[in-house]
Amino acid sequence: MKLIPLQQWVCDRCGEIIQKSSDGKLEWLDERVNSESHPGNLLKFFSIIHNRSASYKNRCSRAKGSMIFLDEDLDYLIGPDGLAELLLFYRDVEDPSEVNEIVRRLHIPYYEEARLYRKAAIADGYMEESSATYFHQQASIKRLIEKYSDQE
Known about the structure:
Distance between the termini: 7 Å
Structural class: alpha+beta
Helix content: 25-40%
Number of domains: 2
Order of helices and strands: EEEHEEHHHHH
């Protein structure tokens, strides 16, 4: 699956390509909104998904039952100002690795495409599972894409 770096992403719900930033949003759960008894670091379950106008029958939104998910358009979270906004999540996030992954997906060229091949690379022994979440250098990312993109 060829993606345009920093302009296209894979929807975490439907698996289809988000064609441009205006077609996507970042969604997350804020426990403080859902319960008055939870102070502290309670942002979790971050996902990049299609927004309502780009989603077939709104199938990509995760909101269910009484749980309230918050969201922000991807347009607001890309570029230098978007990175600054994403860094604010660290104040209140339950698991910082979730924010790390979102930052990589939105701000590191080719990362979004390379992550699609992570499982295959681990299965083949090309990369170890313990280091699979830490690949971020452009040379490593491009090598991974070159090796596995033709195997789809």
